[in-house]
UniProtKB/TrEMBL annotation:
Cellular compartment(s): Secreted
Pfam family, one: ADAM_CR
UniProt name for this protein: Metalloproteinase
Gene Ontology cellular component terms for the protein in this record: extracellular region; plasma membrane
Length: 451
């Protein structure tokens, strides 16, 4: 018999004819490199529907214990990507479902996304939420998500059908979450060291699941190209709803440090068995910790990323670097090529380099006139499935065009195509589009009116 399908995702994010380059072969900007090295966290919420609650004998404690164990397994799977899954919310719909949960996975996902946006997010900020259901989804689908960016406030959500195996459940949850991190389904050529691949379209035999080298490369490429900022938010230990687990690399309530299991720990400052600091140690990790001692006040712990950023200094009282401070929006930068926006200096030249490599340049103005067309080749937005043409004054706030070679042949008006999230194709918000003007909501407006 054929193994069941894992997920209903059919669209892809990256261009199918573009090979995934190894990160070691890419020339990274200082900003890209700094982002890649920064610790990553996903603030994660799990919702259990009423059928699943009843499946476990209406026992909330049994459901919670099961989910804590599953999320712990998910965390172990994500260590290969060097990202921590922080369970900051667990809701059990014990008194009835808050949405109409049905076997049609697409309709249920749409309803759950709407509930997350209008009900959950206003009271519990999160990067991703998953609904676990006791209903049997139509066909062979066991999970579904939209292939969108992790920080998407509208659609960073998934539906998972409950499975008796905790490890299989963890792999399903890790799989759907992976799609929100730019990872597609594994091709048959992708290998997982003899284990089952998490991003396979079908459930493998297990008992161990891991990310393939293909998945790791796609994730890193996604980080470099998109730099999703929500992954940099470190959740407070008091916001974690799961019991503290000594050995998961995340300092939780009651812990002073966490360097992994005793077999994994490589810290001389932390006792891996107790998650307490060794005798005489002031700290274990953090930008302001050096060889188990706090750095003195005034030591630089975060260099200025560029002229739109400020350096941060250690306080002498904490191992953590203070909150990142940035230049005000609208401050001219890059020799007046751009204006500061949220700590960055977005200019089209750098966006082209991020898309196509160091030899890419911004296309001539004639290419941007294609944004007057209002079709897949040029537009300023899309509404109800219909492309919206740019107004003449806004053409440099629509689709981005770059000059670059394709298979050695120079292409004057080259652009990216993403089949799901069109925002990825566009000139970034805050980019200079004319003298004293910046892109805001796909319009080229006076910088003094938006900042």
């Amino acid at each position: 018999t054929r193994p069941p399908k894992i997920c209903g995702v059919t669209q892809t994010m990256w261009e199918s004819d573009e090979s995934i380059e190894k990160i070691s072969q890419l020339v990274l900007t200082p900003e890209q490199d700094r982002y890649l090295q920064a610790p990553k966290y996903i603030e994660f919420v799990v919702v259990v529907d009423n059928r699943m609650y009843r499946k476990y004998s209406n026992n909330s404690n049994a459901v919670r214990t099961r989910l804590f164990e599953i999320v712990n397994i998910v965390n172990k799977m994500y260590r290969a990507l060097d990202v921590h899954i922080a369970l900051i919310g667990l809701e059990i719909w014990s008194n009835g479902d808050k949405i109409h949960v049905q076997s049609n996975d697409v309709l249920t996902l749409t309803s759950f996304e709407r509930w997350r946006e209008t009900d959950l997010l206003p009271r519990k900020s999160n990067d991703n939420a998953q609904l676990l259901t006791g209903i049997a989804l139509d066909g062979s689908t066991l999970g579904i998500t939209n292939f969108v960016e992790i920080c998407n406030m509208k659609q960073s959500a998934a539906i998972i059908q409950d499975h008796s195996s905790k490890t299989v459940m963890a792999s399903l949850m890790a799989h759907e979450l992976g799609h929100s991190l730019g990872i597609e389904h594994d091709e048959y050529s992708c290998k997982c060291n003899g284990n089952s691949c998490i991003m396979s379209w079908k459930i493998g035999p297990g008992p161990f699941y891991e990310f393939s080298s293909c998945s790791i490369q796609e994730y890193q490429k996604y980080l470099i190209n998109k730099r999703p900022q929500c992954l940099l938010n470190k959740p407070l230990s008091k916001d974690i709803v799961a019991p503290a687990v000594c050995g998961n690399y995340f300092v939780e309530e009651g812990e002073e440090c966490d360097c992994g299991s005793p077999q994994e720990c490589q810290s001389a400052c932390c006792n891996a068995t107790t998650c307490k600091l060794q005798h005489g140690a002031q700290c274990d990790s953090g930008e302001c910790c050096d060889q188990c001692r706090l750095k003195g006040a005034g030591a630089e712990c975060r260099a200025a990323m560029d002229e739109c950023d400020f350096p941060e200094l250690c306080t002498g009282q904490s191992a953590e670097c203070p909150t990142d401070l940035i230049q005000r929006n609208g401050q001219p930068c890059e020799n007046n090529q751009g204006f500061c926006y949220n700590g960055k200096c977005p200019i089209m030249a750098n966006q082209c380099i991020a898309f196509f490599g160091p030899d890419a340049e911004v296309s001539p103005d004639s290419c941007f006139r294609d944004n007057l067309l209002g079709n897949g080749y040029g537009y300023c937005g899309r509404e109800n499935g219909r492309y919206i043409a740019c107004e003449p004054q806004d053409v440099k706030c629509g689709k981005l065009y770059c000059k670059h070679k394709t298979y050695g042949i120079p292409v004057l008006c080259k652009s990216k195509y993403f089949t799901d999230n069109l925002d990825f194709e566009m000139v970034e918000t805050g980019t200079k589009c004319g003298d004293g003007r910046v892109c805001s909501n796909r319009q080229c407006v006076n910088v003094t009116t938006v900042y």
